[in-house]
Write a structure and sequence with these properties.
The complex is a heterodimer of chains A (about 300) and B (about 400).
Chain A lengths: L2 E12 L2 E12 L3 E5 L6 H8 L7 E6 L2 E2 L5 H4 L2 E4 L11 H10 L5 H14 L15 H13 L5 E5 L7 H16 L3 E6 L2 H7 L2 E6 L2 E6 L1 H7 L4 E7 L4 H8 L4 E7 L2 E6 L5 H11 L4 E7 L3 H9 L6
Parallel strand pairs in A: 3-8, 3-9, 6-7, 7-8
Antiparallel strand pairs in A: 1-2, 1-4, 4-5, 9-10, 11-13, 11-14, 12-13
Helix pairs in contact in A: 3-4, 3-5, 4-5, 5-6
Chain B lengths: L1 H12 L2 H29 L4 E6 L2 H5 L1 H10 L9 E6 L1 H10 L4 E6 L2 E6 L4 H33 L7 H15 L3 H6 L3 H26 L7 H7 L5 H30 L8 H25 L4 H18 L5 H10 L1 H6 L1 H14 L4 H27 L6
Parallel strand pairs in B: 1-2, 1-3
Antiparallel strand pairs in B: 3-4
Helix pairs in contact in B: 1-11, 2-9, 2-11, 6-7, 9-11, 9-12, 9-13, 9-16, 11-12, 12-13, 12-16, 12-17, 16-17
The chains are: A alpha/beta (about 300), B alpha/beta (about 400).
Chain lengths: ~300, ~400
C-alpha cells in the first residue's frame, strides 16, 4: 500500500516551546488515521504544518510523493480540509457556501453543480439548502463545514475535530459521511479527542501529547500496550480488609481499588476473570448491586502512558 | 477570478453592517446636512462684515495687499466682502473686543497676522481672502522674476516693464482663478458635502478590508480555506478587492444621484472631473482599507473601528464638522492635510467648484494616486512576504 503522506522529523517550535517535536509518521492510501490527544497536544499544529499553512522549524513533508509547499497547487487540488472552526459565509446560503468553496477547486460549472449536490446529500443538508448559516443549529453548521471542505471530491482529507459540540444525531450523520468518504477511496487524517470516535472510525491511531508521538498502531495494538485486557466495575458496600485482600490475590489482577461505592479492578488476559470474581465476592460475603465487565478504552491507554486522562 | 468576484459581491451586498456604513450612513448624513444648512446658505452667504487693518509700515509698503483689500472693501464693488476700518493695534484690538469688527489683519514684513476673538464663517472668509492675496502676490513676484531672467538671458538689458506687466496679466488671466471669483463663490455648505463624499470614498475601505480579511489565512478561518485551496492567493485577493471597489463605486453613484436630484446640490459643471475625483478618492479609501486590513494586527471588529476612526478624524480635519477646522489645519500644520486623503478629496472638489484653473484639482488627484499607490505597494510587499508562524 502506497504512502499518501510521509512526515519526517517534523519540528515546530515557538521560541523555547516545541509544539511539535520531531514527529515522523506516514499515512497509507485508503486508511483513516486518527490523531488522538488532549487539547494542546500538537494535533492541529501538525496538520497546519502538513498543509503548508504554518512554517516549521525542521523536517520534511511529502504528499503523494511530492514535497508539500505553499505553492504546490497541483497537490492542493487533491486535498480537502475541514477545519476545527466553522468557516463559512453568514451572507451565503448553504448551497452557495459549498458552491463557493468548491469553485476554488472546480472551474466547470456543470460538474461543480453535481459535486455540490452530492456533498449536500452526503451530509444530509438537502432540506436546508437555501438556509443561511445563522439559521442552522450547531450540528447542522458542522455538517455544512464538512461539506465545504470535501465537495470537490479530494483524494486526501483532513478532518480536524469535526464533531466538537454537536448533538448525537449530527454526530452520527458526520461519522456515517466520513465512512462513506473512506469507502469511496479517500485517505483520511482525523484528529479528535473523542476516543470513541477513533475506535469506531480509525484503522490506525497515533496518540500525541506535548507534540510527541506517544504510541501508534491499531486500537487493539494500543490497548495491548497498556498491558490490560479487562476492566470490571462492581458497585458494592465497602468490603472488609480480608475481602479486599482476597480480590487482590485473584490471578491476573493488575490493580483493585475501591472509591465512592465502586470497585474498579483491572485484569491481564484471563478466561474466567468475571466468574472467579463473583465466586470471591460470594465467599467473602461482599454484597453488590451491579457488576459489569468492559474492554479497556484508549483513555485507559492514555492514562497508562501519561498518567493523565485524555480530557484533562 | 470571476467566481470569487461574483461571490464577493454577493457577500458584500448581503452584509447589513457594510451596507449601512457604505450606502445608508452617507445618505442619512447628507439629509441631515441638507436640513441643517439649507437656509443658512442663503441668509449668511457673503454678508459684508467689518474688519480692522493695522496701518503700519509693512502695510504701507505692501502695494499688492493695499490694492487687493481696497477692492474687497469698495462699496461700489458688487463683490464687496469687507467694511474696512484702518487703525493702530490698540484701537483695533479695542474694536475687536467690543465686537465692532470681526477680525484684525496686520502685516509684519511679508507675514500676514490675523487676530480673531471667535471662530466662524466671517473669520474663515477673512482668513481665506488673506491667504489668497498672499498666494497671488507670490505668483506675481515669481512670474516677474521669471520674465526678468528670461529677458536678461536673451541679452535684453533694457528691461521692458510694460511688456512684463502685460505678460503677467495675461498669465493671471489664463488662470482666471482671481481672488474675486474664488471668494465670491465660497460656499461653505458645499465643503460639508465635499467632506461627505470624501467620507463615503474612504468608508469604501471597510469593504476592501473585509474582502482582504476573507482571503488571508492569518486573518480569518475562511482565509484558511482559501489558503489550502489551489486558487492563487494573489488572484483571489484581487478579485475580492475588485468586487469591493465595484460596490464602493455603486455606493458613491447612489450618493451623487441622491444629493444632486433629491437634495438639489449643484456640483458645478465639470461632471467628468467630479466622477474622476470620486473614483480616485475611492481608490484611496480602498488602499486605506487594504493597509489597515493587511498591516494592523487586530481582530476584524477592531480594524473596522480603527478604519472608521481614521476616516472620521480625516473628515473632521478636512472640514466636515465645521469648515474652520480645514483652514486652521492648513495654516498651522499644513502637512497634516497634505497626508489626509479626506482633505485631498475635499480640496479637489473645492478646486473644481471655486477655481477656473484645474492645477489645484490635478494636484489633489495626483496626491490621491500617490497616496493609494504607496499604501497598496507597501501592503502588497508585506502580505507577499508574510509567512505564518502562527494562525
Amino acid at each position: 500500500m502506497k504512502n499518501v503522506i510521509e512526515v519526517e522529523h517534523l519540528t515546530k517550535a515557538y521560541k523555547d516551546l516545541k509544539a511539535v517535536d520531531d514527529l515522523s509518521f506516514e499515512v497509507r492510501e485508503g486508511e483513516i488515521l486518527g490523531l488522538l490527544g488532549p487539547n494542546g497536544s500538537g494535533k492541529s499544529t501538525t496538520i497546519n504544518c502538513i498543509l503548508s499553512l504554518l512554517n516549521f522549524s525542521a523536517g520534511s513533508i511529502r504528499i503523494f510523493g511530492e514535497e508539500m509547499k505553499p505553492d504546490a497547487y497541483d497537490l492542493k487540488a487533491r486535498i480537502g480540509v475541514v477545519f476545527q472552526e466553522v468557516a463559512v459565509f453568514d451572507e451565503l446560503t448553504v448551497y452557495e457556501n459549498i458552491d463557493y468553496f468548491c469553485g476554488l477547486y472546480i472551474a466547470d460549472k456543470k460538474l461543480r453543480r453535481q459535486y455540490v449536490e452530492e456533498a449536500i446529500e452526503l451530509v444530509k443538508l438537502g432540506e436546508f439548502k437555501k438556509f443561511r448559516p445563522k439559521k442552522l443549529s450547531g450540528g447542522l453548521l458542522r455538517r455544512l463545514n464538512i461539506a465545504c471542505g470535501i465537495a470537490h471530491k479530494p483524494n486526501l482529507i483532513f478532518l480536524d475535530e469535526p464533531t466538537v459540540a454537536v448533538d448525537p444525531q449530527s454526530r452520527n450523520h458526520i461519522l456515517d459521511g466520513i465512512k462513506k468518504l473512506r469507502d469511496a477511496g479517500a485517505t483520511i487524517v482525523y484528529t479528535t479527542h473523542y476516543m470513541e470516535e477513533v475506535e469506531i472510525l480509525c484503522d490506525r491511531v497515533m496518540i500525541l501529547d506535548k507534540g510527541k508521538i506517544l504510541a501508534s498502531g491499531t486500537t487493539d495494538e494500543l490497548k495491548g500496550l497498556a498491558g490490560m485486557e479487562e476492566k470490571i466495575t462492581v458497585e458494592s458496600e465497602e468490603p472488609e480488609e480480608a475481602g479486599l485482600a482476597a480480590i487482590r490475590a485473584q490471578e491476573n489482577v493488575i490493580a483493585a481499588n475501591y472509591r465512592n461505592g465502586v470497585f474498579l479492578i483491572t485484569y491481564r488476559k484471563g478466561e474466567n476473570n468475571l466468574a472467579e470474581l463473583i465466586e470471591i465476592l460470594k465467599r467473602e460475603g461482599i454484597r453488590y448491586h451491579k457488576i459489569f465487565s468492559e474492554r479497556p478504552t484508549l483513555n485507559d491507554v492514555f492514562l497508562e502512558l501519561t498518567g493523565k486522562e485524555l480530557r484533562d | 477570478m470571476l467566481h470569487t468576484f461574483h461571490y464577493s459581491l454577493k457577500t458584500l451586498f448581503r452584509n447589513r453592517m457594510l451596507l449601512f456604513w457604505t450606502f445608508a450612513f452617507p445618505l442619512i448624513l447628507g439629509s441631515l446636512f441638507h436640513m441643517a444648512f439649507s437656509n443658512i446658505s442663503e441668509s449668511e452667504k457673503l454678508t459684508v462684515f467689518p474688519i480692522a487693518i493695522i496701518e503700519n509700515d509693512s502695510w504701507q509698503e505692501n502695494e499688492f495687499f493695499r490694492e487687493a483689500f481696497s477692492a474687497l472693501g469698495d462699496e461700489n464693488n458688487a463683490d464687496q466682502l469687507f467694511k474696512i476700518r484702518y487703525a493702530d493695534r490698540p484701537e483695533a484690538k479695542a474694536w475687536l473686543q467690543n465686537g465692532e469688527v470681526e477680525g484684525i489683519l496686520e502685516l509684519d514684513g511679508e507675514n500676514v497676522l490675523l487676530t480673531f476673538d471667535s471662530e466662524g464663517i466671517d473669520q474663515t472668509i477673512l482668513k481665506f481672502a488673506a491667504d489668497e492675496v498672499a498666494q497671488k502676490k507670490q505668483i506675481v513676484e515669481a512670474l516677474s522674476q521669471e520674465e526678468i531672467k528670461a529677458q536678461l538671458a536673451a541679452g535684453n538689458f533694457a528691461i521692458d516693464a510694460d511688456g512684463i506687466r502685460e505678460k503677467i496679466e495675461a498669465r493671471l488671466a489664463e488662470e482666471k482663478d482671481t481672488l474675486q471669483t474664488a471668494v465670491s463663490e465660497l460656499d461653505y455648505v458645499m465643503i460639508e458635502y465635499y467632506s461627505l463624499i470624501a467620507m463615503t470614498c474612504l468608508y469604501g475601505g471597510i469593504l476592501a478590508m473585509t474582502a482582504l480579511n476573507q482571503n488571508l489565512a492569518n486573518l480569518s478561518d475562511k482565509g484558511k480555506r482559501v489558503a489550502v485551496s489551489p486558487a492563487s492567493k494573489g488572484r483571489t485577493v484581487l478579485a475580492s478587492v475588485a468586487a469591493s471597489f465595484a460596490a464602493q463605486l455603486l455606493g458613491l453613484a447612489i450618493l451623487f444621484l441622491f444629493t444632486i436630484f433629491v437634495l438639489k446640490v449643484d456640483f458645478g459643471s465639470h461632471s467628468g472631473l467630479v466622477v474622476l475625483l470620486a473614483v480616485v478618492g475611492s481608490l484611496a479609501g480602498l488602499a486605506l482599507g487594504i493597509a489597515v486590513g493587511g498591516l494592523v494586527k487586530a481582530s476584524e471588529n477592531s480594524k473596522t473601528g480603527i478604519l472608521i476612526a481614521i476616516t472620521m478624524f480625516g473628515c473632521f480635519l478636512s472640514g466636515m464638522m465645521g469648515i474652520t477646522m480645514k483652514y486652521v489645519v492648513d495654516k498651522n500644520v499644513p502637512w497634516v492635510n497634505k497626508l489626509n486623503p479626506a482633505a485631498m478629496i475635499t480640496d479637489g472638489f473645492y478646486a473644481l467648484y471655486a477655481y477656473h484653473s484645474f492645477s489645484r484639482f490635478w494636484w489633489n488627484v495626483a496626491s490621491l494616486c500617490l497616496f493609494s499607490a504607496v499604501l497598496i505597494i507597501l501592503s502588497a510587499c508585506v502580505l507577499r512576504r508574510q509567512k505564518y508562524d502562527s494562525i
